Amino acid sequence: MADRNFNVIILGDSLAARVAAISLAKKGERILMFTHSHSLANPWLILSDALEDFLGRLGGRSCLTPPLPLQVLTPDTRTEIHGPLPLADELKREFPSGYASLQSILTRLEDLGDRVEESIKAAGGLPIHGLRSRLRFLRVGFARKISTRSLNRPFQQLLDECADPASREFLQTLMEGLSLTPLKELTVGEAALLWRSTVQQRSISTTAFEAFLKQRYEQFHGETENFETIKSLELQRSGLESVSLKDGHRCTADFYLLATLEALTLLPQQMQPHTTGAPRTFVADLNEKKVSSLLAPRLILAGNPSLRATLTAAGDGRLCCRTQGLHGDTLTTEVVQERLRSLFPFSPLEVEMQPAGPPRIRQHKDDSAGNVFPGWKAKVALRKNLLNICAPVVLPSLGSSGEVMLGLSCANQIIRVKKL
After folding, report:
1. Average pLDDT of each block of 10 consecutive residues along the chain (420 residues)?
2. How many helices (H) and strands (E) does the chain have?
3. Residues 6 or more apart in contact with residue 314 via CB below 8 angstroms
4. CA-CA distances (angstroms) from residue 69 to 81, 141, 217, 404?
5. Is the dihedral of CA 186, 192, 193, 199 positive or negative?
6. Which class is 4-63+204-275+360-419 in CATH?
7. Of 274, 256, 240, 237, whose CA–CA distance to 378 is shortest?
8. pTM (predicted TM-score)
9. Where are the domains of the chain?
10. Cis peptide bond prior to 345, omega within 30° of 0
């Protein structure tokens, strides 16, 4: 490939990368994305308001589906969200003594999550691009009665309002499973965004969504190269100058986005994030083609740590159970197999640990964005023209919702800057 120039180069393939790439390409920007060969299929892809708006603008509502049932299982309760019964009836049945307090907390979380999503949309993105973006977010948040103090309040304080032990265990299991984050690190703002998206009355087909993203990117003339062709980054104090390729050529751009951990490792050591352990993923072959009809396709299991599991069909029609949990020495193949045994007592479980995903990141001491928006863990603006959009290390607790918000926010910021 000869030396080429683009408006934006994106290094790495992720949901945030594709959302940013399509948003920018639709505006007429010339985009090059260095991609990996893996699929973005995610059984825990959640339809946030931001993602639904994105699909609506691009004519992608055909990807929408009815919501997938989700069960939260504790030793004494089985609560189904998006099941045949309304959630209020489920909560009354499972938590008769703690229903009023539990329902109040969930209602308040949903309302707060709705107002936070409205604020992000009205502000044109997350408060991640300096003082102006933070003041803009604070202003629109104030109009919706949102304060940074309320967003960054520890979720544990809200949990303490539950006097009923069963309700407390349900809330803890639910939030740890949705966020894959220890409860002591979770904020009310993060919990609100997660819960607001979880109770959406629509879901999304992951396969249809991935095909739609590919189609739209090609339609808007986005270009793609293999990530493995990258040799190094030519970084100066003022910014990133170019991407050097193994064939001796270079690619240059006005802006560069780093979208995956592999892309971040191309940076000098001192600029790479200081990470902790990644959530662990296990796949269990159930060796059967159907399981109990009492189980939902998505499950969150109480325990230390809480686990989230997804039932999917393998190529031969047999079912697999993909399980994720917080990183820790106690979470081993044997432990996961034992905990799944109660769900599948008649299946000869064969559990394997998968390669580790992107690790979590420790908070940068010099980054104050986390004081404005909950769950913020790392810098986005690494240089004037170099942005970090690796959502699993920037907004690790928010999952796919964080990916979409981060991709849209960075695309909007680039468009704003180029208009100046």
Report:
1. 89 96 96 85 85 95 94 96 96 96 96 96 88 90 92 94 94 95 93 96 92 96 95 93 95 96 90 71 80 88 91 72 76 87 83 69 46 83 93 91 95 88
2. 14, 17
3. 285, 320
4. 6, 32, 31, 22
5. positive
6. alpha beta
7. 274
8. 0.92
9. 4-63+204-275+360-419, 86-199, 280-353
10. no
